[in-house]
């Protein structure tokens, strides 16, 4: 998954196009011939592109602008598809791996959409408008000013919808979400970009002559940009405005683009071969059926299996659980060596998994590498679009960290649940259960690690144990609890566990032979950072796990670890 940093898109091609064409027209009106105006414009725009970082979209726009100028000089017809193809080839010759970059795909995908998909959507829109007009008694369609307004709206809306149709799989694959309101925001933002760019240039020139004149013009531009920011802020804050279905599978993407290519190919065929208007009408019917099916293919992603994913968070812990009935649980989330864990790792990982809300965020103990990611989520719900409904936390009123988390939760509408031994979260009529089985009292140990909340998860015949950073007396007490539970014939607790989340990142002070004899894990999952300063996991722990017969999977070697189960069988996947 590309870095979330890629979202901070550099200079866009829109600016290049606006500035280039404006400059070219000014030079032509000043009396320069085609050749002179083209050369001067291209030199200035090339310098502008270099100055702004040579982003993919900027390079594309420059090449297309240069080809357009060349066509006018040579008296040839400009072809957008050919110029875009040339730009793509030049970029890939210089940087072949750019073909995997999300902004390369989005930039050229948008151009492809305007060339091939936009005519399909626009003509279908015209057909729908004519149908609506006839149903409302306008036999010849809407006339006068209504026709002009409707045509303008249709042109803008069809372009925005077309770009969205082509780029939806890229957005979901890269970021796991689709901003629904962007289709409509573009109707306001893109037309006003010419005004913003022109205003900025005029303000700069006016400021040379008179600083107050420059300030006045720039003030208008400033408030226009503030309006854009406000609109985008409203879009982000609205929970329904972002669809988060998660990353689609390769098969879905292939089928999606096959349908889209089929529509454009059929449109081209009908345009050149249709003998009567009925052919066009039948095609519009087909578009109205197929496009919603394509959207359903991308956005409908039912959860069939219980999914447990141990994210790679560096030196820390971070696990999320997706229950088939829609419940989402976060088991710890924090790191001591990954900067901005929440923004760059946690949020992208959750969205890639299709999670837009966390029903319960469990903090096993109050060490930074177990809670700072959760704290980020709570404090930035309006920015990330991910809602945290409840936090389960050990009640330690003498700890300042406890009150920091409680205050953050209260300020952001998140419920606080103080953990206790025996508390249980159930779903699917009891088929799924997550129970706190230790410690008896959260403050019975002076050491934070020893007092970690121990959570036992069961899903039909599948069982997993989450141990936080438990060690020493805490682990001894846990072993006694498990022995006692196993000795009770009426207990529903498992005799052994399919998967063990190894405590304290594999520290030698935890996961003793006695504990492993009781837990009997098939698979042991260890969360630790690459080349971490603590040298976790320790050799002693690895040796004990091997003797116990458990398979060992580590995030520092495998990246994220995903477990999927139907309650009877389970499978384990690794990122690399």
UniProtKB/TrEMBL annotation:
UniProt keyword list: Cell membrane, Membrane, Transmembrane, Transmembrane helix
InterPro entries xref list: ComA-like_MBL, ComEC_N, Competence_ComEC/Rec2, Competence_DNA_uptake, Metallo-B-lactamas, RibonucZ/Hydroxyglut_hydro
Domain Metallo-beta-lactamase: 313-397
Membrane topology field: Multi-pass membrane protein
Entry GO CC: plasma membrane
Domain ComEC/Rec2-related protein: 13-266
Localization per Swiss-Prot or TrEMBL: Cell membrane
Transmembrane segments: 30-51, 86-115, 152-173, 180-205, 211-228, 249-270, 282-301
GO BP: establishment of competence for transformation
Main location: membrane
Protein name: Metallo-beta-lactamase domain-containing protein
Native source organism of the sequence: [Bacteroides] pectinophilus ATCC 43243
